[in-house]
Amino acid sequence: MKKPELVILTGAGMSAESGISTFRDSGGLWDKYPVMDVASADGFARNPRLVHQFYNTRRRELLSVEPNAGHLGLKELERWYDVTVITQNVDNLHERAGSSNVLHLHGELMKVRSMKHPERIYELTSENLDTTPDTRDAYGDPVRPHIVFFQEAVPNIESAIDIVGSADVVVIIGTSMAVYPAAGLVCYARQGVPVYYIDPNPAPVSGNITVIRKPATEGVAELIDILRPKN
Fold first, then answer.
1. In DSSP terms, which residues pair with 136 in a beta bridge?
2. Contact at 8 Å (CB) between 164 and 188?
3. What is the DSSP string of 95-158?
4. Of these residues, 71, 104, 106, 146, which one is catalytic?
């Protein structure tokens, strides 16, 4: 019997309890770094060394943390659902928790890609974390973080729209609902599809959305109780 399709949209609040610095909250990364200096196409063109250093630091931070109970709970939901996670996060905590299908909208922190041939994407390791403007791939080409900078298109957005459009259940976790185009994805859910929104400080929402006003770890536990088959 085919499992129902569960699509989960995650943002920074999903990983915050693991110790990953959020961007937009008070005291977050954008309070410490000018966003357009370290996360925009213009910033990278202007000072690539600074941008490489910024993401080197983020990678070291990522290796120091573990998936939290929320990440692990989403893996548990695969017992009953065909789960796809669409994440705005660039960390790999969903994958490390065992989630089978993860689509990254904004890139992946542990990867870099060729600046001359963007289809050439390389996975970094804990022994090979740092890059600089002088880093070259096996073809002698410079590399850049495999991150979707501000001012760049989101290449996976069309795939994400299609996935949300086929969902039987949609869940939103830990997002401000302020970053577009990701924030608009829920609008592509079919009429009548149940939507759950987990966040301790949820953004105002309209329509038939069930709000679970809890952090990701507690909210996912409640979600499992709701979505677990009752027979």
1. 142
2. yes
3. HHHT-S-EEESSEEEEEEEESS-TT-EEE-BTTB----TT-B-TTS-BEEEEE--BTS--TTHH
4. 106
DSSP tag of 78? G
Spans of the chain below 50 pLDDT: 26, 30
Are the CB atoms for 210 and 197 separated by under 8 Å? yes
Fill in the amino acid letter for 31. Answer: D
Q: 147 is written with which tokens?
A: 């991150």
pLDDT on residue 72: 98
What is the phi/psi pair of residue 89, to 5°? -80, 145
Q: What is the pTM of this model?
A: 0.94
Closest CA to 189 of 216, 208, 174, 175: 208
Mapped onto helix, strand or coil, the DSSP state of residue 43 is helix
Is 106 in the active site?
A: yes
End-to-end Cα distance, the chain: 15
